Amino acid sequence: MTFNIRHAKGLDGQVRLQPVRDAIQQGNPDLVALQEVDRFQERSGFQDQAQALARSLKMTSIYAPAIRQGISQYGIALLSRYPLKNPHSYPLPGLKEPRVVLTSEIELQGERSTEPGHEKQVVTVVTTHLGVSRADREQQVPELVRIVKKIRTPILFMGDLNMSDDDPLMKELNALLRQASLPPSQPTVLHGGQIDHIFTSFHGVTGSPVWTEPTRASDHVPVMQQVVFNDSLK
Question: Minimal CB count within 10 Å: which of 14, 38, 116, 153?
């Protein structure tokens, strides 16, 4: 699941984390990439939103701030039912609001991973939230591609890219990663369009439908993909 939660500001204008939690729980994901996540911000009751969601959903979390103002932070996060290992945060270039990329490794246990000679499969999960302006994205996409190219494991990439599939800047990502596209009738953001995406780098996947979960918890809806991993990912 990837979900831009807009610091838990719902369509009713109220900032409440419970509807966000409910939307995630409804989808019942194993992995969640979150964007626009507050940490110790006055507008959201000084909550550590990622940690609060992870605790209530019985998941683990890591957080990467893109903006810091005193103790207050604003950024992106990963929630997971698997242990999150070797997390890294990378700054992205841009002229306006700071942006970051967050990566972490997870270990997947396949049916044969307990047999001699069969190790657990490591997958790197990547998330980001690219800039609103095209000028920013033109700087950020090449850096994002550079980061992705350096990863030596299979990749699961989720995030708000602030651009649709037909944007020319998406060509660089589509050359590296595979995306299961949503039907055109399913926008991911209130004003219309599909700007929230899920990609994988591997062939070893069976059954990968992608869909949105309806909610009024944010101006975006969660985007979900069912990915069933084989024992060997390439």
Answer: 116
Structure tokens at 177: 């990663």
- Tally of domains in the chain: 1
User: Could you tell me the CATH number of the domain that includes residue 211?
Assistant: 3.60.10.10
Q: Which residues contact 123 (CB under 8 A, 6 or more apart)?
A: 105, 106, 107, 108, 153, 154, 155, 156, 229, 233
Query: Within a domain: residue 170?
Result: yes
Residue 70: name the closest of 35, 42, 93, 89 by CA.
42
End-to-end CA distance of the chain: 22
Q: Which domain holds residue 6?
A: 2-229
Amino acid identity, residue 120? K
Q: Find the radius of gyration of the CA atoms of the chain.
A: 17
Inter-residue contact 57 to 21 (CB < 8 Å): yes
pLDDT 10s digits, 74-85: 999 999 999 999
Token pair in block for residue 104: 């972490």
pLDDT of amino acid 112:
46
Residue 234 counted as domain residue: no
* Ranges under pLDDT 70 in the chain: 110-118, 203-207, 230-234
Backbone angles phi, psi at 147, to 5 degrees: -65, -45
Give the residue from 198, 126, 179 showing the smallest Cα distance to 155: 126
Model pLDDT for residues 165-185, shown as the tens digit of each residue: 999 999 999 999 999 789 888
pLDDT on residue 205: 56
Distance between CA 51 and CA 65 in Å, rounded?
A: 13
The β-bridge partners of 200 are 156, 178
